[in-house]
Structure formats: C-alpha cells, structure tokens
Amino acid sequence: MRRRSLVVALIGLASLTVLAQTSLSDTASEAHGLHVVSEIKGLDFTLYDNPLPRAPGAVQDRSECENYVIRPVSAAGKLVAAHGWAVTGEAVLGTYRVVSFAGKFEAGTSAHCIVEQGNIGIFNGTKLVALAYAPRASKESIGKIVALDGGGLRVWSGDILSAPVGDIQGLQGDLRLGALATEDSFCHGKVLVPNIYDLPIDKARKILIGKGWKPVASKPTSAPEISSREVGFIKHGIIEVDSCAGTGYAFCAFNYRTPGARLSVTTAGEGDAGKDAPDVVDYYVECH
C-alpha cells in the first residue's frame, strides 16, 4: 500500500506552491546554515522553505490508532497538530526541534496500525526548514521518531509491524539520515546493546552473550502456565524465553541482564529455534 508523504500529498493542490519550488536553493541553504542528506534508499531528506501546509484532509482511522499519536509539547509540535496532522513523535536534535507526523492511519489486527503520509519535519522554532519523507514510488515509509539515549534519533517505519529504518544524526549544521548504529547506548552510556534487529533469536542471543549479556531463565518446563512453544525454546537451549502470545503476530519475549541493566527482547513470527526461529522486532532496556 502506498504511504504518501506530505510532499507527495501536496501534488495537485492548487493552493500550494509547485513542489519543485518548495526546496531551498543553494544560496538559501547557505543562508540557513543547514545541510541535510539521506543515505537511506527510499527516503528523501530535503531543505524546505515554505510554511507548513494543512493536512490534505481529516486524519482517517485515527480513533482506532490513538496509541500511535502523542500530545505535542513544543511550539513546533502544536503547530503541526493545529494544521490537521497527527503528531507521532517529538525530539530535540542540537538547536532544532524534530517532529514526526502523519496524515492517515489504517487500523490493523492486534491493536496495530499502518501509518500513511508520514513525514519528519525539522523546525527552527516554528519554521519548517527541512523535511524527510518517502517518495511516491518508495517501498519505505515513516511512522515515528524516537530519541536515542546516546544522541540522535531513530526513524521507525509506518508498516503494520513497525521496524527501524535509519538514524538521524546532527553535527555542526549537518543532518544525516543514515543506517542504524551498530550498537545503542543506554544508562548514561554505561550499557551497550548491539544492533540485533531482524536477526533470528538464536543468532541474536549469541551476539548478546558475546557482548556480556547473560540469559535469564524465566521458568522451568514443568511450570503449569508454560506454553508448548516456550517449552520448545527451552529445549533448544534458549532458556531466557519469558512468554509467547498464542495469537496475532506470535510475539515472544526474552530476558537478559548485565551489571546495571535488564534487557527484554521481542520477536515476531512462529517457530522456536533453528531454521524457523522468529526474528527480533524490538527490545527494551531497564537501567538499575
């Protein structure tokens, strides 16, 4: 399904400037002192020199996807919401306020939604100065941004099962949308988690163990509440399985620890280990 961005959604609206005229010229770029670049195939990152337009219609299916929408706290975020867009994330990056926003949601199963017409706006105060988006023919999409503990922002897709697609880093007036960091820092830089997204859990755990994370055995196979799928993980040596959902996307949780933190890893998909091991879709760190 196409996930049109702000830029694509504006095509054909007579009240707005032709898109070819919305990006900044080289001269204007120098005047703003900002340069942006995307190294992610399927996501564009461009300077922008027009006022923020209104959303191209009421945000659809929002009532069933309210958990995807946040209440903006910054002047830039409130401006985006006032123009009819749904704000999905806010963060500070250097001197800029960054806001992710979308124009449409499509409700799916298990309380998940597809985010469409997703964008990331870079604001200087309340002035939109740059925009990241997925062009019309792109297979990528933008759902939200999340601030990284060690600095920078992570961009998550708008897919029904959202996944990280890249990181935005800023340095002296340059903003770069690039590949995911090889590892993320937490707990004021004291804890590191390697990039294990999209890896089967049996491979991901080997990497984690190699980086000092210890599996935490959750329950014995004789526990009355344990599922047959959890038993399958344990029999394959993946003792850290904590729980598995029997419906929906078949999520499973796995627990690890290291001095100063606990790590919960989430997979999606059926299977328990070996060739059919499910892939990592997310993780959460709790600092002690």
Descriptive notes:
- The structure is a single chain.
- The chain has helices spanning 6-9, 26-32, 75-82, 201-210, 228-235, and strands at residues 35-38, 44-47, 86-93, 96-102, 104-107, 113-116, 119-124, 127-133, 144-147, 153-156, 164-171, 174-178, 183-186, 191-194, 214-215, 241-244, 252-258, 261-268, 279-287.
- The chain is globular and about 65 Å long.
- It folds into 2 domains: 6-181, no CATH class; 185-287, no CATH class.
- The strands form 5 sheets. A 5-stranded mixed beta sheet has the order 1-12-11-10-9, with no helix packed on it. It has a 5-stranded antiparallel beta sheet with strand order 2-8-7-4-3, covered by helices on one side. Strands 15, 16, 17, 18 and 19 form a 5-stranded antiparallel beta sheet that branches.
- The chain is mainly beta.
- It has 5 helices and 19 strands.
